[in-house]
């Protein structure tokens, strides 16, 4: 059997030659090793176990030849330092969304009275990464997660269990399932926001759930729904925190001005300098 080092070198070159990410190969090797990056440096001249090698090569081919996202091969993605199970039924958590969580936590501190127990709804939760991370970071929050996909709700529930936290789950489109609960103080959402015709890489288009990606011809379908319905599920003061497409910030501001009265709107760029998040605040 070849050594870990050799296996890595050969397959990183294979990835590069095929226009793929060599870093993905390293992640797959760590997964199948199984090794932590430190263990790799200690053991790199040792021969890889045959079974692990065969399984690794199979996944390398799935990634390189069939564009299968490595998160699907490995079965999880790290988000905000926490491990989230992902399947083909949920959107793979993205870096940008960690920024939505950070800003939301900051605004929870600065906007709401400190002694108020706050109720958060994460609508269109997918893997649960937003709502469950908020709960992990601020245990006093009461968190409810919704998703239109039953399979996504199951994944999110499994993630809550694995993270050892309590959250409530409900199946249904966006805010629709919220009526059966007490009113909320915060709605947070990363709804599907790609335009239906948006060109996508095969790794996303062929493997991630379209129900979690596409938001109608202008990418705004779910924001319209959200603004039209949100207030009936919210207390005052409230905050609505959203991620959105890089080119829809202005349109979203307009939609808010048309639908919600007496609110303050704050828009933020992500670390790549793209307009990516909008926060709506209503004071009493
Ligand atoms: N950010 C995701 C992408 O670029 C889209 C996520 C979404 O639609 N909410 O693929």
Account of the protein in words:
It is a single chain. With 284 residues, this protein is α/β, with parallel strands linked by helices. The chain folds into two domains: 4-66; 93-282, Rossmann fold, CATH 3.40.50. It contains eleven helices and nine strands. The protein has helices at 4-17, 22-32, 37-43, 50-66, 70-74, 95-111, 129-137, 150-163, 202-205, 221-229, 249-259; strands at residues 76-79, 82-85, 119-123, 142-147, 168-171, 184-189, 234-243, 264-269, 275-282. The strands form two sheets. A seven-stranded mixed beta sheet has the order 5-4-3-6-7-9-8, with helices on both faces. A two-stranded antiparallel sheet has the order 1-2. Strand 1 (76-79) and strand 2 (82-85) form a beta hairpin. Helix 1 (4-17) runs antiparallel to helix 2, helix 6 crosses helix 7 and helix 10 (221-229) packs parallel to helix 11. The structure holds glutamine. Glutamine binds at residues 91, 94, 190, 192-194, 204, 213.
List the helices and strands and how they pair.
Elements: H1 4-17, H2 22-32, H3 37-43, H4 50-66, H5 70-74, E1 76-79, E2 82-85, H6 95-111, E3 119-123, H7 129-137, E4 142-147, H8 150-163, E5 168-171, E6 184-189, H9 202-205, H10 221-229, E7 234-243, H11 249-259, E8 264-269, E9 275-282
Parallel strand pairs: 3-4, 3-6, 4-5, 6-7
Antiparallel strand pairs: 1-2, 7-9, 8-9
Helix pairs in contact: 1-2, 2-4, 6-7, 10-11
Task: Give a brief rundown of this model.
The protein contains eleven helices and nine strands. By secondary structure, the chain is α/β, with parallel strands linked by helices. The longest helix is centred in the first third of the chain and has 17 residues, at 50-66.
């Amino acid at each position: 059997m070849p050594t870990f080092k050799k296996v890595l070198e050969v397959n990183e070159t294979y990835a590069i030659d095929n226009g793929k990410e060599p870093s993905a190969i390293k992640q797959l090797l760590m997964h199948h090793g199984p090794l932590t990056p430190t263990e790799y440096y200690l053991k790199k001249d040792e021969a890889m176990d045959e079974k692990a090698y065969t399984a690794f090569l199979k996944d390398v081919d799935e990634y390189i030849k069939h564009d299968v996202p490595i998160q699907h091969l490995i079965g999880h993605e790290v988000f905000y330092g926490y491990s989230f199970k992902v399947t083909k039924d949920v959107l793979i958590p993205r870096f940008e969304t960690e920024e939505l969580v950070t800003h939301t936590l900051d605004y929870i501190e600065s906007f709401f009275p400190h002694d108020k127990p706050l109720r958060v709804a994460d609508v269109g939760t997918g893997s649960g990464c937003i709502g469950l991370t908020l709960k992990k970071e601020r245990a006093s929050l009461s968190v409810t997660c919704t998703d239109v996909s039953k399979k996504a709700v199951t994944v999110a529930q499994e993630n809550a269990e694995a993270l050892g936290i309590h959250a409530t789950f409900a199946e249904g489109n966006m805010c629709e399932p919220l009526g059966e609960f007490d009113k909320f103080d915060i709605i947070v959402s990363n709804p599907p926001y790609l335009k239906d015709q948006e060109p996508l890489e095969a790794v996303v288009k062929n493997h991630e759930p379209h129900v979690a990606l596409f938001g109608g011809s202008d990418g705004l379908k779910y924001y319209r729904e959200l603004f039209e319905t949100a207030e009936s599920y919210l207390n005052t003061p409230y905050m609505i925190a959203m991620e959105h497409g890089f080119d829809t910030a202005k349109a979203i501001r307009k939609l808010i001005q048309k639908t919600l009265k007496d609110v303050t709107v704050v828009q933020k760029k992500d670390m790549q300098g793209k307009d990516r998040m909008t926060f709506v605040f209503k004071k009493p």
